[in-house]
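Practice problem: predict the structure.
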Amino acid sequence: MDNNTQDEEVMKQIEREVRMREGASKLLAACSRREQALEASKNLLTCNARILALLSQLQRMRKAQILQRVGRRPSEDVVPCLGKVSLSDLRIPLMWKDSEYFKNKGELQRCAVFCLLQCGTEIRDTDLVMVDRTLTDICFENTIIFSEVGPGFELRVELYSSCAVEDFSLGALGPRRGSRVGGSVGCSSGRKIRAAFESAAVCGSSGGNVGPGSESPPSSPDLSTLGPKYNLLAHTTLRIEHVQEGFKTHDLSLAATEDNPFWLPLYGNMCCRLVAQPLCMIQPIINGQLKVKLGEDLNCWENVYGVLRGPSLLCYQSQEDPESEDKPLLVIPIRKDTLVCVSEREPVHCQSLYISTQLQGQDVTYVLTTHTPEDMQRWTEAIWQHVYNMSE
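Answer:
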């Protein structure tokens, strides 16, 4: 994809989010029920977060294009494969005071809460959950999946809260301001994107933006007094080292104090399942004809059909065997500590590929070759890349 096509794609995404934000704004202005207003305000905040993320991506792309034009090429270092990251079973425990929870004293405070999750430019949100002292945990049933994520990913989880009081003003703006919200319908794309940028800048200058570590803003200057407001209650950032089997606990950083009306008594942690799946573990990397050396006899080679996938180089007797799910003739383990080198010392074959790995505590070396030098280069580069992917 060339630079112009990438720019156009990001611009289209920004325009789409701007239109969605306009729709959420008009819906919020027309809301007559509290539940509707809370959901519309949540959608407004999410749209604004996506616009800011896409504008940042566009800025990075333009900077890279400028550097390329002046002769500074991007790094040609080996790049690891991408994968998918999934977060599910998100639960945030609450710590109510004994007088509030067990004796059921005091005013029954109710808050509407949801989580905003950002990984790169991808932003997802959970369903809205109503919370009061009858709950011991905030539970989100959503399974959030991020695709095309690199091993250096940072998945930021933000918990937003809004005090769900009965007497907030839904119709405070009236017809005049409601019409003003929808007044940009039909404007050119450039004006819409400029307006999106300006509103984001206003949100940032007023001390609230939806970027990491910040409180939620009004989505545009005209909406600063419209409907319920969400505020950042807590946040955390998950990385590849947090990917473990099962249900795990992670620390939260609190962003509000007890005197805030949207406050909830958090323990200071959250529980979830975080799963990462590199694409190289589920997709075949390379396949084709190989020769594998069997035993110590220099002339004892077996023709096989090789498939590099996941933690193994699978060697089948024929090309039809993988499709028929027959057991491979030989399984060569490929791990992050596997050593791969090419040697030309074989008297029979010009080049041989040596794969050294540990098997049941012992070093084992496999020797392979190909029918052409071009195939040898393809297989060598593919296995090197696969080992690097697994190490990352």
